[in-house]
Amino acid sequence: MKTICSLVISADGLIAYPDGRSVSSDYNWQVFQREAHDHNNFIVGRRTFELATDALAQVKCDHKIIVSSRADLTIPPGFTVAATPQAALGHLKDKVEATYLVGGAGINTSFAAAGLIDELVLTVEPKVIGAGEHMFSSALNDVKLELLESEPLPDNRIRLSYRIAK
């Protein structure tokens, strides 16, 4: 089972504005819903879950996993909580061919630091926002990437797919 970390970033490499709003667009939301349906799963961290609970609840897939060690989360039906990235992957073992990680810097860093991301897919939005949230925290460094594909998308976007060098 492979893990795909998929992110929407600004041209300056940020995933959210300083106030937490995503740099994503309606176009990217449609892509996310299709990919989650096709992979039949998604994994998010607690913060992403709290920012988008209602929207995530509407996504059509069988496995919706939140990675969080907090016991005080209110979880709607259809979601599963896992305390660690490894536990999240354990919930999906033998159920899906690929896991679809779509969280923020915290969860992305946890997965990457544990060597659990196989592919990184970046959709670059044609805008520069200057300040905001990075796709990984500063605790992660020197991860080597091998370009698999670059694909032009509508409205001056581009999708870059990388394999994480092991």
Task: Outline the structure in words.
The protein has 4 helices and 10 strands. 26% of the residues lie in helices and 34% in strands. The two termini are 16 Å apart. It is an alpha/beta fold. Strands 6-1-7-10-9 form a 5-stranded mixed β-sheet, with helices on one face. The chain has a 3-stranded parallel β-sheet with strand order 3-4-5.
Q: What's the layout of helices and strands?
A:
Elements: E1 2-10, E2 14-16, H1 26-39, E3 41-45, H2 46-57, E4 63-67, E5 79-82, H3 85-92, E6 98-101, H4 105-113, E7 119-125, E8 133-134, E9 145-153, E10 157-164
Parallel strand pairs: 1-6, 1-7, 3-4, 4-5
Antiparallel strand pairs: 2-8, 7-10, 9-10
Which percent range fits the helix content? 25-40%
Task: Find the count of extended strands (DSSP E, 2+ residues).
Answer: 10
Arithmetic mean pLDDT: 93
Overall, the morphology is: globular
For the termini, the CA-CA separation is 16 Å
Sheet of most strands:
5 strands, mixed
Order of strands across the biggest sheet? 6-1-7-10-9
Structural class: alpha/beta
Tell me the number of helical segments per DSSP (H or I, 4 or more residues long): 4
Q: Which residue ranges are poorly predicted, with pLDDT under 50 across at least 5 consecutive positions?
A: none
Q: Can you write the helix and strand succession as a string? A: EEHEHEEHEHEEEE
Percentage of residues in DSSP E strands: 25-35%
Round the Cα radius of gyration to an integer and report it. Answer: 15 Å
